[in-house]
Amino acid sequence: MTxxxxxxxxxxxxxxxxxxxxxxxxxTARRLHYDHESQAPAIVEAxxxxxxxxxxxxxxxxxxxREANSLNRPAVFVDYTGATLLQxxxxxxxxxxxxxxxxxxxxxxxxxxxxxxxxxxxxxxVRSLPYRSGLRSDDVVAFHRRQHKSGADVAVTxxxxxxxxxxxxxxxxxxxxxxxxxxxxxxxxxxxxGSQAQEDAQIALGLxxxxxxxxxxxxxxxxxxxxxxxxxPDTYLIVTxxxxxxxxxxxxxxxxxxRRLADRHETVQIGFGLGRSxxxxxxxxxxxxxxxxxxxxxxAVLSLRGETDIVLESTTPPPAPSEVNLAVIAQRVGLSVPTxxxxxxxxxxxxxxxxxxxxxxxxxxxxQRTARRMLHRLELAGLAERTGNLxxxxxxxPLTLYRLTL
Length: 406
Description:
It comes from Micromonospora echinaurantiaca. This is HTH domain-containing protein. InterPro entries: Rev_trsase/Diguanyl_cyclase, WH-like_DNA-bd_sf, WH_DNA-bd_sf. The protein is of the alpha/beta class. The protein is built from 16 helices and 17 strands. It has helices at residues 11-21, 40-46, 59-67, 83-94, 109-118, 137-149, 160-166, 179-200, 217-223, 242-248, 256-262, 278-295, 326-333, 337-350, 357-364, 368-380; strands spanning 3-10, 27-34, 53-56, 75-77, 102-106, 127-130, 154-157, 172-174, 203-210, 227-232, 235-241, 268-275, 298-304, 308-314, 355-356, 384-390, 399-404. The strands form 4 sheets. A 6-stranded mixed sheet has the order 10-11-9-12-13-14, with helices on both faces.
């Protein structure tokens, strides 16, 4: 069995990293270069269906892709500590640089101290800038410039765009991952792929309640790689596995087939259950279908172990604001009533002004990716609408603007 891995990074690193990966039997690498690390999320989205896993040449593009919610396959990045950092120190010494006086980005001070300490090198005049979310390449360049003015002999960077600026101003060295670091990352990735394969093989059962027979359902089930059987007079059993269902629902966020079936049937209620056995999956599918019936005539719900239900899709119009029952909405969107109350307070405070996921995250004191998931669920339920994009002010992609109608 051959596993194809997407290797993402700058032009000067991707080929070497990919070649190191292909030394592993059964691994092929798709080389995906970028000119600037901010392009990483778009590359992932453009090639998402073509690879089984992602290997990033560094933590920066990996973090940008992860924060953009672009990663729907196993993904790791090559670590630049240990062998990579020690290899760079040796090369800098041979080139005549004073490695006890240098500035280094992305790598933490603790990692530098550990690596240099094992080599017997002092670190009291080594300055580091660990990578963190929201750190821009301009910020990294400014850090190295300050350290150079303070006496740093050489700037060591893990970011290609930073190196392209610094190399014209001061002695600069570009960290490149060692083969040992690449092989270590690859082993970690292959373990994740194996675990994901087992998870994707988990059985998924669906119960579909349709008016007017099964018109169009068989074709949709074939798209899930599944089979269809009659379960009851107006209910059909869908048998598939987690992997195809995950892909068809965009990572369990939507179910496009529901809207297509709604064009043919007045009632389309689908409940999916994921379980470790057929019996467990069936029980969860029954629970999901029961909830779909409570939500509305055109609804799909996914039930997971641990009392977790996700409304994948519903074309039922939202109730008028004066009639809104937060307990019902909480069931529909999978959020708690206190969270919905806080979101309503945020909406009231801004009126008709749109909000970004970052602003919602700040108001609710949650991580930005959590806020994105909340807004996406509200959007699917008709309680938030996208109104455009706003430049993020960082190297990441623009932020989406939402207007809350909760």
